[in-house]
Amino acid sequence: MSLAESIVGALSFLPDWLVVLFISFLPFIELRGSLPVAVAVYDMPVLEATVLSIFGNMVPVPFILWYFPRIEAWFRRWPWWDRTLDRLFERTRRRARWSIDRYGPAFLLVFVAIPFPTTGAWTGALIAYLFDLKRGQSFVVILLGVVVAGAVVAALVAGAMTLWWIGLIGLIALLFAIVALGWYEGRKQGRGSPP
Fold this sequence. Notes:
This protein is about 80% helix and about 0% strand. By secondary structure, the chain is mainly α. It folds into two domains: about 1-60, no CATH class; about 60-195, no CATH class. Helix 2 crosses helix 4 and helix 8 (about 120-130) packs antiparallel against helix 9. The radius of gyration is 18 Å and the shape is globular. The N and C termini lie far apart (about 60 Å). The mean pLDDT is about 85.
């Protein structure tokens, strides 16, 4: 039995939409698990399942971006948590440093948009926090990444790429290009003109 099936069984007393929302909120599972559950188990329409999953996946992001320093300080009062957070943060910094230094928010968008384990809104928000990226910009970039991931997972769940999904992914790619160009121009102006 998969983790998602276990959660569905344990939460069977709740309304279907609330279970989908809860699953999409969970780290590592996120919308990659909630969207297939919504369609396969609860027989939700793909668009409804996608919107619910995106919303649920975004719930923790503002808390991580704006309130995680307080949560971190509270946990660091205990030596075990202090060591655990140090290891987790160092590992995350080591893996993402080159990409963040080179691509900034554009990397964050692509990282969140790829629907693989250990990528997604939770890890993206943690990366934004650890690298002290602008919170408002990070929130928008993570939201765009979650929308792209939602479109990809929904297309896989639906079994075929319809023109509507291709159009949505194209629009998001255009937004990505605008964000990446704005980020690049901002960095270029901040550092002065290239030689």
